[in-house]
UniProtKB/TrEMBL annotation, chains A, B:
Keyword flag Oxidoreductase: yes
One Gene Ontology cellular component: cytosol
SUPFAM superfamilies named in the record: ALDH-like
The organism of origin for this protein: Arcobacter cloacae
Gene name, Swiss-Prot/TrEMBL: hisD
Binding positions (substrate): S237, Q259, H262, H328, D361, E415, H420
Protein name per its UniProtKB record: Histidinol dehydrogenase
Amino acid sequence: MKIINTKDTNFNEEFENIQARAKSDIKGVSSIVMNIIDEIVTDGNEALKRHISKFDKWEVGSDENLLISLDDMKKAYENIDDNLKKSLHMAYDRIKAYHEKQLPKSWLDFEENGTILGQKVTAVDRAGLYIPGGKAAYPSSLLMNAIPAIVAGVKEIVVCTPTPNNEVNELLLAACYLCKVSKVYKVGGASAIAAMAYGTKTIPKVDVITGPGNIFVATAKKLVFGEVNIDMIAGPSEIGILADETAKPHYLAIDLLSQAEHDEMASSIMITTCDEVATLTSKEVEEYLKNLSREEIARKSIEERGAIIVASSMEEAIKLMNEIAPEHLEVMTKNPFELLPYIKHAGAIFLGENTPEPIGDYIAGPNHTLPTGSTAKFYSPLNVENFMKKSSIISFSKNAINELGEACAILADTEGLTAHAKSVRVRLEK
Amino acid sequence: MKIINTKDTNFNEEFENIQARAKSDIKGVSSIVMNIIDEIVTDGNEALKRHISKFDKWEVGSDENLLISLDDMKKAYENIDDNLKKSLHMAYDRIKAYHEKQLPKSWLDFEENGTILGQKVTAVDRAGLYIPGGKAAYPSSLLMNAIPAIVAGVKEIVVCTPTPNNEVNELLLAACYLCKVSKVYKVGGASAIAAMAYGTKTIPKVDVITGPGNIFVATAKKLVFGEVNIDMIAGPSEIGILADETAKPHYLAIDLLSQAEHDEMASSIMITTCDEVATLTSKEVEEYLKNLSREEIARKSIEERGAIIVASSMEEAIKLMNEIAPEHLEVMTKNPFELLPYIKHAGAIFLGENTPEPIGDYIAGPNHTLPTGSTAKFYSPLNVENFMKKSSIISFSKNAINELGEACAILADTEGLTAHAKSVRVRLEK
C-alpha cells in the first residue's frame, strides 16, 4: 500500500488526488435518468413493467405482481437460522434504541407580554426506502433505513428493491418482516425512485426517499429532490484512520480492507504520526489481501484509491483528516476521546482499538448511511429527522401586538409591502 | 373573491386546481442554468463579470469591485433613521432569541458494558446566503438567513446579492452591517449560486447555500445540491386561513391580501365553516384592494389563485388544509390552540386574531423562510440545523466487542463481506 509523507515535495499534489476521490459523475447519466423519470410520470405501472423486463429480465404481468406478499416475508423470516435471527434482533434493538435518543421534541415558549412561540415536530406521512437488490442486497440497509422512519413515527413505509430474474433476496424479506414493512415492491433503479416520487397506480407517492443505490439511483434522487425530500446523494464508501504509535498494524490493516472490499471505487486512507506503524500496516494489508474472499475488488481499491500518509504531528494529521471529511473515521490512538473536540468533519467517528468500523455497519446502533466524498462537511448521518419536519408556532396576545406591531409595520413599509403593514395596524389599539 | 363550497358538485375538481397551484417550472430553465454554472466553473470571476455586464448592466473592472466594502455597510447603517434602526434591532434580537432555542446539543450515552455512543453537532465552516437585490431587496431576508447561521456558530458568512446598474440597496447593507456579515459580493442570479458552490478567485466555496430567489436561482440551487447543501427549493408565497364564525372578516381580508401583494403567483386560500364570514371577507377584500399600493399584483393573485372554501365542519376544513400544506397558516378560530394537534402540515402556524402573518415575516422571531407548494409535508422552516451537521460517535470497550462482536460478524458474513467480519473477529478474545 502506498505510503506518502507530508514532507514529500509532491505531497500537496498527492493530497489533492486523495481529496479528488471518486465523485459520482451524475451529469453523465442525467439525461438517461430524466427520460426514465418522464416515462414513469407518463406511463406509470406500464413503464415500470417495461423497465423490469429490460433490466431485471422478467415479465410482471398484472399489477399485483409488483408487490411482495406479507406471507412471503413471514416465510423468509421463519426460515432464517436462529443465530442469524438473534443477531438481526440484536441489531434491530440497538439501532432502535440509538435513534430514539435522536427524537426532537415539540416545544412552546411563553413571554410576559402574552407572546407564545414554539416549534411543532411531526413525522412525514409516507416514507419510501430504496434498497439495492440481487446479490448485493443488504438486510442491514433495510434496518438502517426503516428503523429511523419507524422511530420518527411514519405511518406508512414503502420499500422498493429490484429482483433480477424475479429472484428475491430472502434475507432482505426477513428484515422487512422484522421491521413490519408491509409494502415491498419489486422495482429497482431510477424507475423505483421516480415511482415513489410521483406515484403510480400501484406505488404510492411518498414524502421522503432514502436509501443507497448506484449512480442511476443517486441521480434520480437528485432529480426528484423538491418533489419529495431525500436523505443525501451518496457515492462510494470510505474510511479514514488516524493512528499514533500505539495502534496495532494488524487491526489497522484489516479495517482499511473492510472498506476496500466494498467497491473498487472505495477509498481507504490512513494518516499516522508513526513511520513504523505505516510500514507495518502496509505489509499487513498485503498479507490479509491474499486470503480475502473479495481480494480482487479490495486490491484494486487499495492500489488505486488507498494511501497511508505519515504526518509530522497529530495536529497536522487531524487538519488533513478534516479536509478529507471521511464517511467513516477511526481514531486509533492512545487517548482517542482527547482528540474528539478537534475532529470537525466526519460521518461517524470510531474511537479506540476495540471499535472497528464494521461494528457501526451492523450492530452498534448509529446509522450506517453516512455522507461520502467530503459531504460530511455539510450532511449528517441518516437520522430520525430525515423523516420528520417542523412547523413554527406563533401566537400574539393583544398586549404583544400593541407592543411589537408598530416596529413590524415600519419594517413592512420600508420594504414597500403596505398590505403587510396594514394587516398589523388594523389590529393596533387606537 | 371566489367562494366555493365543499358540497358543490365540482368541488373536487376546484380543489385539485387549488392544490396544483404555481409550481416552479424548473425543468424549463434547467439547460440555461446548467450553462451558466459551467461558465462559472470554467471561467470563474471572468464569467461573473460577463454575466453582471449582461444582466445587471454595469462593468466590474477589477476583481475587488465585486466586493462591497465594510465601510459602505457601516455608512448605510449609520444613515438609517432611528425608528427603523430600533425596529431592525428589535427584529434582530427576537429572531436571535428564537433561533437560540433551536440549537441542538452534542450528547454521549454510556452502557454498562463500556459502550459509548453519541452524536457530535458542529457548525459548517462556511455559509453562503443569496439575497435578491435591486428594488425587491428585503433586509428582512438578510436577517432571517444570517441569524440562524450566526447562532449555529458558522465562522464565515458570505452574502451574494445582485446590484442592477451597480446600485446597492442601502437597507440591505445596513442589515449586513447589523449582522456583522463582512463579505458581501455584488453578484446575482444563477451565477452567484454557482460561484458560492464551486468557488472563484474572489468568492470562496461554501458548504451551505440558503436564501430566496427567482426560478433561475431556485434551479441553480437544485443543480448544485450535493456539491453543497441547500435549504430548500422555494416557489411563490402562500397563505392558508382556517376561520370559524368568530373570525373578523376585515382581519381575514387584509391577511389574505398581505400574501397576494407579494406576487401575482402568490396564493391566498381561506377555509371557513361559516357562510357569512366567507361572504363578508370576500367583500372586504374588494374594499381593501382599491387602496393598496400594490393593487394590480394583489388583484391578479386573488382573482387567479385565491379562493374561499366553505366547509361543513372544522374537521373537514383541517383535513383539506393538511392536504394543501400551506407555507403560512392562520388559525382564526375561537380556541385556536385546541386545533393545533390536528394540524399536520404547514410551514408556520399563526394562532388567534392578534397574530397576522406579517408579524412572522419581520418581528415575531421564527424564520420567514418557509416551505411552499405543499413541501411543508416534508421540509422545515429555515433553522439553525441548516447550518450544522452531525457526526455519530461510537466507542466500544473490550467487554463490549466481546459481547456484541460475534453477532456483528455473523451479519457481515451473511452479506458476504468477510473483511468486515474479520476486522471484528481479530479483536475477539479467544
